[in-house]
Amino acid sequence: MAATSIVGTGGMLLPVVNAVATEPPAPAAELDPVGIAKFTQRMPLAPVLQPYLTTSTTSYYRMNLKEASKEIVPGLTTRLRTFNGSFPGPVIKAESGRRVVVRQTNSLSVPTSIHLHGAHVPQDSDGSPMDLIEPDGGTKTYTYPNTQPHANLWFHDHAHHMESENVFRGMTGTYVLTDDIERRLRLPSGAYDIPVSLRDARFAQNGELIYEMGDFRKRNVILANGKSWPYFEVAARKYRFRLTNTANQRFFALRLADGSELVQIGTDGGLLPSPYRTDTVAISPGERADVVIDFSRYPVGTTIELVNKDVAPFESADLVGKVIQFRVTRTAHDDSVVPDTLRTLPPLPAASVNRSVDMKMDETGSPGSQAYINGKTYDMDRIDTEIAYGATEIWTVKNSNQFAPHNFHMHLVQFRVLERNGQPVTSGPETGLKDTVPLKPGETVKVQATFTGYRGTYVYHCHLFDHGAMGMMANMRIS
Q1: Domain ranges for the chain
Q2: Looking at the whole model, is its pTM more than 0.90?
């Protein structure tokens, strides 16, 4: 099968890449997204999962991985792979210092492995690509100690060679970790603190998802919290939106249609040191952006669109360039504030090790094309990087491709971005704690991390799921 892999970021285009040598199913009659009515469906809120048991130290949850049918496109029903039958997946609200235990039962017909993305967890609860929950009733219990500070985490399938399709078919959820540092601030909260999962999709005329590895060109229906181009009613006051890019390959550059200010207050690993005031917030697959929008500047009755400016030349701005319509429907009291100082990050310790990571995939379009880290495809039995427990290291990560963007995600730790293309990072969203960082073709980033807390084998990889499934992943062992 020749599976196309075309990815847009700043107009970058990746040519056809062959990923899997299997025969595709008979093609379904494809839905023309031009005919989908926009801003007719209300954006739902993801359900908050309640623990079935709480003790003085631990909250216990159960989830069932199962198929469910939902209306994503108006008037059509779509079969999905879900957590607890919900799409978007549920939200777990956790607290630093309080343990969470989740028992996952896999009622699907495919294996799964659930990764809590951005979490500091022991190896046996990391959801590594080969630590599988067997289909048709297999179970696994994951323990999340929550010893890290507040962070905007999310969970998704990570079963190797299956993660791309499983995530595309719905297997994502949100995990909001808070602490006293965050709680002491008077940021928008409660009904004004909204998790939003963004992605793209492709549909058949009967509403079913069409999955083809790497078919970025055809995934041109934008979803927010599981609905195509929804609207969301807001009061004329400040809102906090915790945005997660759950797409397989799409990059988003989000802005309000009138160019008004967005205040980014956080990223993957929680709050930034100080607010970043901008008109555009960019997130690559797997990244999170914590953003405050002040709707008090708009009269009641105003509609304003959140748009995506990362539109490739072959794409329609009327499709992938539209995301959510906000409707200002009422006034509301607002005593929330965005303080000038959000948190203080500890000083960076001295690094004792420097490493280089080269990310590259075949761009010839020939059969059997693969993706590599340091010239090698992923091997579950090979340790690519040996790390001393407690070591602080600097990794220089390069995208060596001419056309394809990538991004770099590291399990176990949050890192700090030191440089981008040789220039120090001194302002903006990359001054916070990160676990995923984008790289356009030819770009280089330098990151620093300290490997402590747990020993074991973890992976680092490109978080464009199709690239990881093609081999762009490696093992590191902390011992």
Answers
A1: 40-178, 190-330, 353-478
A2: yes
